[in-house]
Structure formats: structure tokens, C-alpha cells
Amino acid sequence: MIRFALPFFIFLLFLLEGTLFQIFVPPSPEREFYLVPRFMLIAVVLTSIYRGAGSGVLVGAGFGLLYDIVYTDIIGIYMFSMGFTAYISAFTYRSVRASFLWPFVIIVSAIFVLEWMTYGLHYIIGGTDLLFEEFFMMRALPSLIMNGIAALLLIYPMQRIFAKIREVEELQHR
Amino acid sequence: MPHFFSNKRLILLMVSIIVLVSLIGFSTRNNETITWPEKFLRDTTGVVQSLVSRPAHMTAGFFGNVADIFRVYEENQMLKSRMEEFASLSAELETVKQENATLREMIDSESSLSDYTTRSALVIHRSPDKWTDMIGINKGSQNGVSENMAVVTPEGLIGKVETTSEFTSTVQLLSDDSRANRVSAMVATDGEPVYAFIEGWNEEQEGLMLRKIQSDAEIEEGQQVITSGLGGLFPRGLAIGTITSLQPDEYGLSYNALVEPAADYYNLEQVNVIERTSETLDETIQQETGGESNEEQSSEEEQQNADGGGSS
């Protein structure tokens, strides 16, 4: 059963991004910047760190595909960028896993990589003509701050989930 | 970074880039209908989203109500002054309606472009990355919703149905700035109505762009913009907004206007999907309006073709 805990948790974050966040923090014409929640990515990066690159890419690409189909109309953008981000953030070292700061640093850089990649892909296919400076001020920076705070809240509970999964797996091995 | 770009990984990266390009190509090519796996995924997540969004809307609404309590007095004063206006307006509306009915009887025309039926739907998601501006609603093709139908709130038009699956559909808001996002609109003037197109959102000036207004048209700031009903499935007379500024376009051949939207695109909870009941224009009306400009006709044909493709 514990096997399904992780996908279920990420699916909850998926709903949080598209439905709950949009209801409680509706976009407003007065705001100069966009608040884009990337809670799912936080979980995907942590999966990558604690479960290895393989699981990270699988979860990232899978939920990226779901994101593409349900929330956007162009399939492939999030599937590719989330998979790629999960892959490059797979720092599976013991010292990284044990600390709180390292996962946080990796998550923040992963968020920036994802924002940049989605911006680049939309720019290539003609979905936007935003300049890089505008993109950085309007999207990347607010997203980094907001999702950084979300990451601070999420890292500890997720570390507990991974520890629990590991415990159960070790029990099954015996 | 653990053995980062070794040969095998490089090949894998190449393959995934090829897959990415082909997927993007595939999904931008046929954007009118969606395939069954997509429909299935949207429907299943749609069920969960409906379950989650209903109580969430209620909670958000409750906090909104608490904030409203502090403004009740001012609002009450304003509404009282509006009431008198409303009474005279509704009397006028009643007489105009009767007159319209008798006139229609005289020319034996049963249906008009402004007749429609509505279906109410709950907003279940909104695209969280703001690259596109779309919302999801919990009514799909099983409920009779189909592509390109108009979607409104009580204040006015907000967008059109982009894709449908069995139990959910996505709505492209007017504020979405994709090139295909265009609505045939008209400006209600004292004389002849002026036809033009709403083409997307102006990011800098925060308003909808009304383009291709004929240069001899008599248009002022503050006039109402409504749907014309000439293109596609939209009925006539849905409010879009009011004109706030007017300038000649880059070639000086026509005017562009900035329209302040009547509806609020930001706090959406319950929306109505509108189906026009009259299938086509009356012959006589078509002749009158069709000759006005070639552009209008061609885009109308385009729209109708798209509709035909969607429903077949």
C-alpha cells in the first residue's frame, strides 16, 4: 500500500496547483507578476533525490504528461521539462539526503530550470513573445520565492514519507 | 552530478527531444478534437476536481462574504440609487420586447440570432502556468456542450469552449492571447451597428483589442461592444465590454479600439455555456450584412468550417 502513497501525494499536489490554488489565490489584474505554483515539481525533485534518477524521471514525465493533457493544450512541454529536471536533480548522495539545506538548494535551482525551459519552449513554438528580462521579473523571481517557501514546508514531511517507504521495503526484503 | 552525459544517456536525450518535437507537432496540428486517451484522463481527473472544487469554492466564498460585510452600507446606498433606474428600464424593456414579438410575427420569422439556451457549469480548474488562459468546467459532450460555444457569466461573455471530453470541457478565455482567439463583435451605435473583431488581450494596456473597425465608422469612447452573432455559434447581443480608447491601426486603413471587459475573468465559479437555438441566419439578414466586407465573410466561413469539422 505504501507504494501508492507517493503517487497519491503528488496527485494531491497536482489538484492543489490547478484547482485549490486558483480558487484561493485567483489571478488579479492589479498584480504585475504571475504566481505559478510548482508544488508538484518539489515532490518530483525530492523523489529524484531519495529514490534515484529512474523513479524521478518516471514520476516527473508521468505527472508532466497529466499536467499537459489536463491543464494545457500542447502535449510534451511539461512531460519533457519535468522529466529532464528530475534527471539533472538526481543527487543521490548520503550527505544530501541527510541534510535539509541541500534538497532546498536543489529544489530552488530545479524550479528555475523548469521555468526557463517552459519559457524557452513556449518561445520557440510561438506561444509567447516575452523578453527574457520580463520573464525573469514577472515569472521566474516570484515563482522562486513562492515555491521556495512551499519547499520549506514540504521538505520535512516528504523526507518522512521516503523514510517510511524505505523502512517498509527493508522489512519486505528480510 | 552522477556520470552525466555518457553516450547512452546522450542518445536517450536525443530520442526524448525527438519525441517532444513530434508530440508538440501532433498536438498543435489537430487542436479541434482530442484523442480518447486525453478524454479519458481529463474525465477521470475532472471527477476528482469537481469533488474538490465545490467545497473549496464555498470556503473561498465564505471568506469573501466576511470581507463584504464591511462594505454593506456603501453598497446599499449605491444599489438604492440604481433601483429607480432599474424600474424605468424594466418597464421600457417590457414594451420593447412586446414590440419585438409583434414585429417578428409580422415578418414570419420564428427564431432570431439572439435566441439561446444556457447550461450552467462549475469551474473545476484554471491553467496554473499562465502561458495560456483557460479554465475547465464540469460539463462535457454528454451534457450537450460542443466546441466553439459561447461561455458567459451574468456580467458578460468570458470566452468560448475550446475542447470537450465526455464530462468536462476546457474554455478559452477572451484574455488568452493566442492568435486563433477571435470573436466577431459589433459596436452598438445610434445608427448602423459597426462590425469588428475582438482579437486577444493587450498586455500593456490591460484590455481587449477590438480590431478592423472601418475607418468611416462613427465610434466614441464609452460605447458598448457586444457579440454580433455573425461568426460561428455565438448568439447576438452578449455583452463584451465598453470602449475605453481608440486609435488608428498601423496602416491607417482602419481603427483599433481598447475594450474594457464587462465580465470579471479572475474570480470565476459558476459559468453558463450558451447554445444558439437558431441554426443559421435568415436569408434576408444574410444578404444585408454579408456584403459589408469580404474579410468578415471569409472569416465567417472559416468559423463555420471549423464548426462543421468539430461536430462531424
TrEMBL record, chain A:
Localization, UniProt: Cell membrane
Membrane topology, record value: Multi-pass membrane protein
Pfam families on file: MreD (PF04093)
A GO CC annotation given for this chain: plasma membrane
InterPro entries assigned to the protein according to its UniProt record, in alphabetical order: Cell_shape_determining_MreD
Lineage: superkingdom: Bacteria
TM spans (from-to): 6-27, 39-63, 69-88, 100-124, 136-156
Keyword terms of this UniProt record: Cell membrane, Cell shape, Membrane, Transmembrane, Transmembrane helix
Single Gene Ontology BP annotation: regulation of cell shape
Keyword Ligase tagged: no
Family: Belongs to the MreD family.
Protein name: Rod shape-determining protein MreD
TrEMBL record, chain B:
Acidic residues biased stretches: 293-304
GO BP term, example: regulation of cell shape
Protein name, entry field: Cell shape-determining protein MreC
Record GO cellular component, one term: plasma membrane
Species of the source: Salibacterium halotolerans
Taxonomic path: Bacteria, Bacillati, Bacillota, Bacilli, Bacillales
NCBIfam families given in the database record: mreC
Entry keywords, A to Z: Cell shape, Coiled coil
Source organism superkingdom: Bacteria
Homology family: Belongs to the MreC family.
Annotated Rod shape-determining protein MreC beta-barrel core domain residues: 123-275
Function: Involved in formation and maintenance of cell shape.
InterPro entries, per database record: Cell/Rod_1, Cell/Rod_MreC_2, MreC, MreC_beta-barrel_core
Ribonucleoprotein as UniProt keyword: no
Coiled coil residues, start to end: 79-106
Gene3D superfamilies: Rod shape-determining protein MreC, domain 1, Rod shape-determining protein MreC, domain 2, Single helix bin
Region (Disordered), start-end ranges: 277-312
